[in-house]
Amino acid sequence: MPITLDKRLAAVDRLRQENIFVMESERAMTQNIRPLKILVVNLMPKKMNTEVHILRHLANTPLQLEVEFLYMATHVSKNTSNEYLQNYYRTFDDIKDKRYDGMIITGAPVEKLPFEKVDYWQELSDLMEWSKSHVFSSLHLCWGAQAGLYYHYGVDKQPLKAKLSGIYEQDLVTPSLLTRGFDDSYKCPHSRYTTVYPDQLAKTGLDILAAGKEVGVAIAATPNMRQIFSFGHFEYTRDTLAEEYFRDQKAGIDPQLPVNYFPDDDPKKKPKLTWSLAASTFFSNWINYAVYQETPYDLADLR
């Protein structure tokens, strides 16, 4: 939230230089305030789990948010009932005449497929095109980040020799309000078979905010933060990677043990939670700096 101060206070100019949102008391008296409208495009199979993961972080702000969930109407969900989706989710046709302050596109377990082979690719492409004029800031996560890069910039994902699964260290590369409050290096879960390398973004105009030796590009964004691409899973809980590991093991896939995750690499031991602070900081920064402080009060003015 902004800090409301008397504009004559000596600290005001210094705080503004540090990008601390300071509101003069005169403006606060006349400010129009409304809830921020957030659209979550949930592409994950277990949608209710992902809802909790995302909402836990979105709720970590004193701002009032109105959150809607959207599913792909051209895809038949195997893990979430159609009745649940029809009752609690929207389709693109339902919302295409609306505007939103922010949008999140989640990951999806389809990274081995070419984008055009994903059964809902055309619908998702239409949504991403629509977002250019109907969403102020779009946050793409994991496969959603790869899909966004491919659609908006023609940058294709690259296959890895083995699945990237575990807790990896990333380094900050370019200063950004999105990583304000981060340490120079931070940890984040990753779970994917493909990646994007820094040299692939050379001609896109995107800023690489963070990267790592194992993970490649970790976070990239346009300078104005209207398009943000995060390739990790900040939203994962302590147990999510363990659930994926045991699921794959049960399916006979013989998965590799997630790196830097189970203490002593023992799956019987409780995983350590080492990314919670970075995760809450990242989502709070997105809501505050990329959405709240920049979006127009009247979304009809969105350009």
Structure notes:
Pathway: Amino-acid biosynthesis; L-methionine biosynthesis via de novo pathway; O-acetyl-L-homoserine from L-homoserine: step 1/1. It is an enzyme of class 2 (transferase). One of its GO terms (molecular function) is homoserine O-acetyltransferase activity. It comes from Lactobacillus equicursoris DSM 19284 = JCM 14600 = CIP 110162. Its main location: cytoplasm. This protein is α/β, with parallel strands linked by helices and 303 residues long. It has a single domain, classed as Class I glutamine amidotransferase (GATase) domain (Rossmann fold, 3-Layer(aba) Sandwich), CATH 3.40.50.880. It has a nine-stranded mixed sheet with strand order 4-3-5-6-11-10-9-7-8, sandwiched between helices. Strands 1-2 form a two-stranded parallel ribbon. The longest helix has 17 residues. The radius of gyration is 20 Å and the shape is globular. The N terminus is likely disordered.
